[in-house]
Design brief:
- With 599 residues, the protein is an alpha/beta fold.
- It has 21 helices and 10 strands.
- The strands form 2 sheets. Strands 6-7-8-3-9-10 form a 6-stranded mixed sheet, sandwiched between helices. Strands 2-1-4-5 form a 4-stranded antiparallel sheet.
- Helix 5 packs antiparallel against helix 6.
- It starts with a helix and ends in a 5-residue tail after the last helix.
- It holds the Pfam family ABC_tran.
- Keywords: ATP-binding, Membrane, Nucleotide-binding, Transmembrane, Transmembrane helix.
- This is HlyB/MsbA family ABC transporter.
């Protein structure tokens, strides 16, 4: 169990999380948004005040005034300065928002990879993709909106003082639309949240269905289920369409209401201004000042309404992202991450055996795990593996062989009371410890990416050609590589569809062997291999150097070679020892040995 699993869950408020993200690059955000907007709004204030002076002097002047007519040129210069600052700020903003979103994605992916590999996601793949793509983008949008509202608030506060000084009555009426916006936004908060949750869930269902369909094309064709699958996909799209329409229509309606409310307020203000001219001193310059301010106040009112709605949407997204954290504190989501935006990526180094302590003895005590849905699994397993030996785990189908491997390696969380030691030292976090150079693992059904065979074996590892071909040869894959259309550069397709079962298993073995490790773990590697190929594989694997290997197999060739055979039955160890010993002690082993094909 990892440290983050055992840590006390720390839930942070949304403002606190935004603040922690902002602190990671405060100067970039300041340069990207606050400074350009501050210059812009300060210029806008100056522009409005100059506009007031211009019209007042224009009303009072009877003859030419050079200073008066130079004012428009100052407006043009101010506009050019704002454009330049805005361009520079936009570049900084794009970088800042990109780093924020990628930090969130980095931290979530890191958390998923820390979890036991057999159950890395709390929901469907589609929900996870939707979270990575959409929910994190909501954070970026909220950041941009918050910075915009902050600058507009500063401007509006100063403008309010000036407007109150000019006319208290008209100024108070200007801010009536703002009150309406706040009331409407708060009243629609729950419904907006409900529609946003529904639209996100529907999108996740569609995304997940696409992945499942692409991964099961052959099975769909064999079953002749194309029409039924298409109908199901259309049904999911219809549900998504309905949910997205509800969400979009409500958001658009609120935005329209905000804009129209402000527009009605602007018309009323102009009427009041005309009335006020007859009852109090309200010059043409004052009217120009108010009209000049109204555009920014309109933006302020609309931004406040949009911000309130966006905060609600972001809380929904945060709830979904917390699910992907799977019990980790909120600080794990907003922790600083090195993204290498300006520096070269670090070199991936080939693990060396001597970096890890040489394996003399691996022990597991009281190792148990039961699947929550069935209650089946393994119970109270005690095993001991000595260095430079071959241990084979065998048993009937469903006896717990794969479960034992996954629990030992931390891919499934062991139940309380289990203890694993490496040379007598307790392994606190098996999922993190049992990786190269300590351990290398080949599962029964290996995963492949739609990339070249070379990349699927190396996975970014900078191994030399000699090391690569050595691993391929030890995995008895060299003849298959020659027969492939482009050799190692052959694109194997989604899930390695272009490879046969035996080629896939041996390619996975080559992937493991190119990463030197103290302990090699194979889960039924030879299940898709013929007897001759299997014999060559084990001969090559054990001929060059000593290995400590843990193998799940039912084949006689590897059982006869084993230093230790562990017989599992219904999740318990029935017998353990050399082949001759377990055959003598265990009726289960005798049954397995005598069967023509062990299950």
């Amino acid at each position: 169990m990892t440290t983050t699993q055992t840590a006390t869950r720390q839930t942070l408020s949304l403002p606190h999380m935004l603040w922690l993200l902002l602190r990671q690059q405060p100067w970039r955000y300041a340069a990207s948004e606050l400074l350009p907007l501050s210059f812009f709004l300060a210029g806008r204030l100056a522009f409005s005040l100059l506009l007031q002076v211009f019209f007042n002097r224009l009303q009072q002047q009877s003859g030419p005034d050079l200073a008066l007519w130079l004012l428009p040129f100052s407006f043009i210069l101010a506009a050019l300065a704002r454009a330049i600052l805005g361009s520079l700020g936009n570049r900084a903003l794009v970088t800042a928002l990109f780093k924020t979103t990628q930090t969130l994605r980095h931290n979530i992916l890191k958390r998923i990879l820390e979890r036991p590999g057999a159950r890395p996601l709390p929901g469907s793949t589609g929900e996870a993709i939707s979270g990575f793509r959409d929910d994190i983008e909501i954070f970026a949008q909220l950041f941009s909106r918050l910075l915009n509202v902050f600058a507009l608030t500063c401007f509006t506060s100063i403008a309010l003082v000036i407007m109150l000084h000019t006319s208290v009555r008209i100024t108070l009426f200007v801010f009536l639309p703002l009150l309406c916006v706040v009331i409407v936004a708060q009243s629609m908060k729950k419904r907006l949240e409900k529609y946003r949750v529904a639209s996100r869930a529907a999108t996740a269902e569609v995304t997940g269905a696409i992945g499942e369909i692409f991964g099961s094309v052959q099975a769909i064709q064999v079953a002749g289920a194309e029409e039924r699958v298409t109908e199901h996909f259309s049904h999911l799209n219809k549900r998504r369409h309905d949910a997205m329409v509800q969400d979009s229509v409500l958001s658009a309606a609120l935005n329209s209401l905000f804009g129209n409310t402000v527009g009605i307020g602007i018309g009323a203000i102009l009427i009041l201004a005309a009335i006020a001219r007859g009852s109090e001193h309200f010059s043409v310059g004052d009217i120009a000042l108010f009209i000049s301010f109204l555009g920014n106040i309109t933006n302020f009112v609309q931004s406040i309404g949009t911000l309130l709605a966006q905060v609600t949407q972001t809380r929904v997204s945060l709830t979904r992202l917390r699910a992907l954290l799977q019990g980790a504190p909120d600080t794990a989501l907003v922790a600083p991450a090195e993204l290498y935006l300006q520096h070269p990526l670090p070199q991936i180094t080939l693990p060396a055996k001597y970096f890890a302590s040489e394996l003399h003895i691996l022990q597991a005590h009281n190792l148990s795990y039961h699947y929550p849905d069935t209650g089946r699994g393994i119970t109270g397993i005690n095993l001991e593996i000595k260095g430079n030996t071959l241990t084979v785990i065998t048993g009937r189908m469903g006896s717990g062989k794969t479960t034992l491997l996954r629990t030992l390696l931390g891919l499934l969380p062991a139940e309380a009371g289990a203890e694993i030691t490496w040379n007598g030292v307790k392994v606190a976090e098996p999922a993190i410890f049992f990786v190269p150079p300590h351990c290398a693992y080949t599962p029964q059904v290996p995963h492949f990416f739609s990339d070249t065979l070379r990349e699927n074996i190396l996975l970014g590892l900078p191994a030399s050609e000699e090391q690569l071909y050595g691993a391929i040869q030890n995995a008895v894959m060299e003849e298959d590589v020659i027969q492939l259309e482009a050799g190692l550069e052959t694109v194997v397709g989604v899930k390695g569809v272009k490879l046969s079962g035996g080629q896939a298993q041996r390619s996975a073995a080559a992937r493991m062997l190119v990463r030197p490790a103290q302990l090699l773990v194979f889960d039924d590697l030879s299940s898709a291999l013929d007897v001759a190929t299997e014999a060559r594989l084990w001969e090559r694997l054990f001929s060059e150097e000593q290995h400590t290997s843990l193998v799940v197999s039912h084949r006689r060739a590897i059982l006869q070679r084993a230093d230790q055979v562990i017989v599992l039955k219904e999740g318990y160890i029935e017998a353990c020892g050399r082949l001759e010993e377990v055959l003598d002690q265990s009726s289960e082993m005798r049954y397995l040995w005598l069967k023509d094909e062990i299950e």
